[in-house]
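YM 10:42: Tyrosine recombinase XerC sequence, as discussed on the call
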Amino acid sequence: MNDAVAEFIDYLTQTKNYSVHTATAYETDIRDFIKFYDNYIGADVSLADFARADTICFRAWMADRGRRNLAHKSTARALSSLRGFYKFLAKKHNVHNNAIGLISSPKVPRKLSKAIEVSDVEHMHDAIRDIDAAEPWIAARDWALVTLIFGCGLRISEALSLKNIDVRGRPDSLRILGKGAKERIVPILPAVLDAIDKYTRLRPFGTAPDDALFRSVRGLPMSARMAEKVIEKLRHYLQLPDYVTPHALRHTFATALLAGGADLRSLQELLGHSSLSTTQLYTRVNMAEIMNIYEHAHPRATDQEK
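YM 10:58: structure's back
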């Protein structure tokens, strides 16, 4: 089984262009099932065993995950990973299993992300200047990153994947390679370009066209964890809620566009969502805001509603 799993992970990274992080999550999920299945049949499982697994086995695995206090969301993802592995086995090794298709995923409540107050984003500029007063180029870098994510709705990984050549000449738009190697075009605001220009003028290294745009203090490409720490410092400095994260900046971009009249299809393209249902979550956010306004301000709202 180890060879088949390794082959599948290689397929995800080399053929499907999945990130190492995503491929590792798939591998963790699949090996969790294999470990359970080993104990379930009392022997090391083979490809033939994988073909024979039935609905009782799959449900027992999911119940076992529940006993280990693993969240429904985690188990839903694990089941999806296992389904993907079975599809690969059917295609590459002629291993077929119909039972996996009969298993329903656990119901996962879809939480609504919270948007950041625009005023709080504006306050981040002065906070960054104060925090990084000793290193003006770091302050310029951090503000450029914040404005890029907030102004273009990028994921952290997308922002950090940009190279100098991508922003040379102040382009009107950026060509972004998102999840699953899906490419999209995202407009870029002049204010974002101004912040990037200031940063690139001040930084002491990483100026070659193919160098990563965002650099660490030591001159290496900036990592996602470094970017998260930038927002963490701002959150603590400004005493903002815990939900203020890099993703919340992207979420604020989306809710602002929807509130401004953007249609869902256009928003889906800008965000790089593969499914419209993901984008539709933002309509629920907007409705929650509308209902809150109604309950507190509408003259026909009852006293109890208020």
